[in-house]
């Protein structure tokens, strides 16, 4: 028998980076020692205290039953306490916190839960490609808002046409930013809250890299902004903060109508998460080792950023210095498109990078470097690229 996929699935965006993975695998099969800077998967293990806590909870039969649909009250309380202590923002754990199997789920289900076919929302360009899956599943339209180097990769709210702002229902933002490594400022977020109120646009802050800030500066949470809870929500994932990308655990905090809609759609899709995982997540957030474990993770990325940026400067390749995340957003030399440049690096230097156009039209002219290997290998990658004399 042959089965056709639904029209809904036909509308899903193609996975741009599948092509890159295929090219890299081919080179590896040919025996090339590829230095892969194209990925976004944390390379180090989850901190030991979280692994040990999980082992303990997995052995407890109480965690083997169905979870409450909307997750353990103690986990929602721990999430609310975490935000209160860290960002001074207060949330009612039952009404203003939603538990998620990774933040990607929340980002993708949100249009489905809160918009109607034909509605419009705003997405950053360049931006995390999976935002587009939500538009396809929710059958909604999106308008992209450019993130430009001259604005430190923050959207210029004054440049969003009045008509677009008026018809938009939501605006997705992501700082610290994938792919550019830019961070938001309190002033920008204050302006964003006023803009959101003026045009009645819900703000969806994707704080996936919320823990990863450099130069002694912790990234600003949107929820620190006065009035933020009134206009939006923030997604917080364990994937990057605690190297837990494979565990699939996150939460959202903020406006209770948005949280209720996310919880409602999830009542029909999931039975929350494995209770042992939720218990381990509470321990991840509350254990005394938390801050030192996170500091080790962040310190490692900062060391890699420094090594990479310094080596790149030496070959005349000037970075937009990343202030957070584990990415560097690097310009493409004149005469190449992002994809052509990425191909040259792979074929002539054995270095894989992610072409910027995969993140949107305004990603053209850049490539994204993942700082997910040790500093020596990053420097070796830059030295191999230097030998091509593309920046002389
Ligand atoms: C900007 C951004 N948002 C969300 C996610 C998804 O994270 P999670 O593992 O919580 O689904 C990622 C993962 O790479 C990301 O880069």
TrEMBL record:
Pfam families: Aminotran_1_2. GO terms for molecular function: pyridoxal phosphate binding; transaminase activity. Its cofactor is pyridoxal 5'-phosphate. Keywords: Aminotransferase, Transferase. Transmembrane segments: none annotated. It comes from the Bacteria. InterPro entries: Aminotransferase_I/II_large, LL-DAP_aminotransferase, PyrdxlP-dep_Trfase, PyrdxlP-dep_Trfase_major, PyrdxlP-dep_Trfase_small. Residues 33-385 form the Aminotransferase class I/classII large domain. NCBIfam families: PRK08068.1. This is Pyridoxal phosphate-dependent aminotransferase. It comes from Limosilactobacillus rudii. The lineage of its organism: Bacteria, Bacillati, Bacillota, Bacilli, Lactobacillales.
């Amino acid at each position: 028998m042959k089965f056709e996929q639904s029209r809904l699935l036909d509308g899903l965006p193609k996975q741009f980076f599948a092509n890159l993975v295929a090219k890299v695998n081919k080179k590896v099969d040919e025996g090339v020692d590829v230095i892969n800077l194209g990925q976004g998967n944390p390379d180090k293990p989850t901190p030991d205290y979280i692994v040990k806590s999980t082992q303990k909870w997995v052995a407890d039969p109480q965690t083997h039953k169905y979870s409450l649909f909307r997750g353990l009250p103690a986990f929602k309380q721990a999430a609310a306490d975490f935000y209160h202590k860290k960002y001074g923002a207060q949330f009612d754990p039952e009404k203003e916190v939603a538990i998620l199997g990774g933040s990607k789920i929340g980002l993708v289900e949100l249009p489905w839960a809160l918009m109607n076919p034909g509605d419009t929302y705003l997405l950053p360009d360049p931006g995390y490609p999976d935002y587009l899956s939500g538009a396809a599943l929710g059958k909604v339209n999106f308008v992209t808002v450019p993130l430009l180097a001259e604005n430190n990769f923050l959207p210029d709210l004054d440049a969003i046409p009045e008509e677009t702002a008026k018809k938009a229902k939501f605006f997705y933002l992501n700082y610290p930013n994938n792919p550019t490594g830019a961070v938001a400022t309190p002033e920008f977020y204050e302006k964003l809250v006023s803009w959101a109120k003026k045009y009645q646009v819900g703000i969806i802050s994707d704080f996936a890299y919320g823990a990863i800030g450099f130069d002694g500066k912790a990234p600003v949470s949107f929820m620190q902004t006065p009035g933020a809870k009134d206009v939006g929500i923030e997604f917080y994932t364990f994937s990057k903060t605690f190297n837990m990308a494979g565990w699939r655990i996150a939460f959202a905090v903020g406006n209770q109508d948005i949280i209720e809609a996310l919880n409602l759609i999830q009542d029909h899709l999931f039975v929350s998460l494995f209770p042992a995982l939720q218990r381990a997540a509470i321990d991840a957030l509350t254990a005394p080792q938390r801050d030192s474990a996170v500091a080790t993770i962040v310190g490692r990325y900062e060391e890699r950023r420094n090594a990479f940026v310094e080596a790149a400067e030496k070959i005349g390749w000037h970075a937009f210095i990343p202030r957070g995340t584990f990415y560097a957003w690097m310009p493409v030399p004149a005469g190449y498109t992002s994809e052509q440049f990425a191909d040259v690096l792979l074929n002539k230097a054995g270095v894989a990078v992610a072409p910027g156009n995969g993140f949107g039209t305004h990603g053209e002219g850049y490539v994204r470097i993942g700082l997910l290997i040790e500093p020596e290998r990053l420097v070796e990658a830059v030295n191999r690229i230097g030998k091509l004399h593309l920046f002389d």
